[in-house]
């Protein structure tokens, strides 16, 4: 069987059951999301560091203005004075979403991944601004990620699109789902879909640093499906993390899942926002080059390539310009680690910070090479060229390979060297 034998039903709309995950900062680009939409699936964009992303795409100056406003505080470990301008957050979010939505050309959908853990110094207010602006701009769906999102629905319950926009939640355990569902039922707003993200996913993991290896995606998905059946809730379940082939996807679809969410194979596509040299690092990575560490200030374990430049950071915190992970008191784990290392450093000695990293700067500069567990298999999906580099496939090629492949086969793209010779 093929993925194309199945369809995802969300309300009255039917989709190819392939969802491209929302990889930030701007790895899941507008172009990548639009490819999925054009082909009848669902593409995500991410609102991670949305003001910075708009600066890169539209030459706005949100980050520069914020840095100038708080320049007096640049050498101070106390960041409690720093706030984002809610009007600018909403403006940037609307600009980014409208830019993407306006280019839709197919029968698919564009969703936005919104992370609760992107606390931005004032967690509730900034999250509300991002969610509301995305709905104002016409986003098809909002995927609530990176946290339990216990109060997220309350932030948008009065928005006129609260019952119109598709709402989903990313969870990694049945317990997380049951907690979220209690509030959703009270508000009369059941999620339209549930993404179950397993321990093989890329980036932040929804497990504790010590026990993520004890879990398995198929088992979690079955628990969730059984729970929903018991509760008489007909909500589409979308597994994510480690689904590398169309055959992997079919195994979930045959047992009750409604679609799959995939990302790793799309990181090296032409449409991905990663720089081409970084994409080459991904394809060249071996299994031993992939690590799960605890350097993220969010407190979540995170999977990345161990050659990520961010792991050698000793840069000064740039919270005045960025500061997306500042908590409600203006705190961030990297700030504490940086100033401890600065105080302990001897003259002419290079600072070493090993327990935390500056994730805001690292993600913005594409220095944090987050990846899925199956990244070491990317070389199976493409061709090595005569200059030693790997051919970068198109997002359409990867999407269609998921959609139509069988028997664990992976169709490599047609060699560009042969085409051009």
Major sheet size, sense and barrel closure: 8 strands, parallel
Overall shape: globular
Q: How many whole angstroms does the radius of gyration measure?
A: 21 Å
Number of strands: 13
| Quaternary | single chain
What is the averaged pLDDT score?
95
- Element pattern in H and E: EEEHEHHHEHEHEHEEHEHEHEEHHHH
Task: Measure the end-to-end span.
Answer: 36 Å
State the low-pLDDT regions, or none.
none
Give the helix proportion (percent range): 25-40%
State the helix count: 14
CATH architectural name: Alpha-Beta Barrel
CATH class bucket = Alpha Beta
The CATH superfamily turns out to be Aldolase class I
How many domains, in number, for the residues?
1
Strand order in the largest sheet: 10-8-7-6-5-4-3-11
Strand content: 5-15%
Could you say what the CATH topology is called?
TIM Barrel
- Structural class call reads alpha/beta
